[in-house]
Write a structure and sequence with these properties.
Helices cover 66% and strands 0% of the residues. The longest helix has 17 residues, at 83-99. It is built from 8 helices and no strands. The radius of gyration is 18 Å and the shape is globular.
Length: 145
């Protein structure tokens, strides 16, 4: 959860810095400000991801290979229609890998928790499953971590 909070904080800080600079309490300005969503450049998003300790967003090939690897472990790990969620969780697991690259037990436990294997799939909630998930994450999403 700390990772999401940190990443969200970086994004909020980036968005805040991109504001119009107007401090007018004029309701007309407030209405126009809320109707226009601020945009973040790809470069700023990449900087925010790096600051949060996350790797770049995977390309289509890496994403597909990662999802295939999770399905090879157990097709139930990815919830139906939740491929984006599985990628997001994998990216967050990269942060844990970066923080504790050699702590196999911690990485396995984090993967089982992060992918809700412990609560949804108790029959496969064993260290070996967490290790396989982490191996897929490392190979396809953050090979440089």
């Amino acid at each position: 959860m700390r990772i999401r909070t940190t990443f969200a904080s970086v994004i909020v800080a980036t968005l805040t810095a991109c504001g119009s600079g107007s401090t007018s309490p004029d309701p007309a300005n407030a209405k126009s400000a809320t109707s226009q969503a601020p945009s973040i450049s790809a470069e700023d998003l990449a900087k925010a991801r790096e600051a949060a300790g996350l790797p770049p967003e995977p390309d289509a090939k890496a994403r597909g290979a990662y999802l295939d690897a999770l399905n090879a472990i157990d097709a139930r790990i990815i919830k139906p229609g939740k491929e984006d969620q599985a990628v997001s969780r994998g990216m967050n697991q990269c942060r844990t890998v970066k923080d504790s690259p050699d702590d196999t037990q911690k990485l396995a436990e984090a993967a089982l928790d992060r992918f809700t294997v412990n609560s949804r799939l108790p029959e496969i909630a064993i260290p070996a499953t967490g290790e396989k998930i982490t191996a897929a994450v490392r190979k396809h999403l953050c090979p440089d971590f």
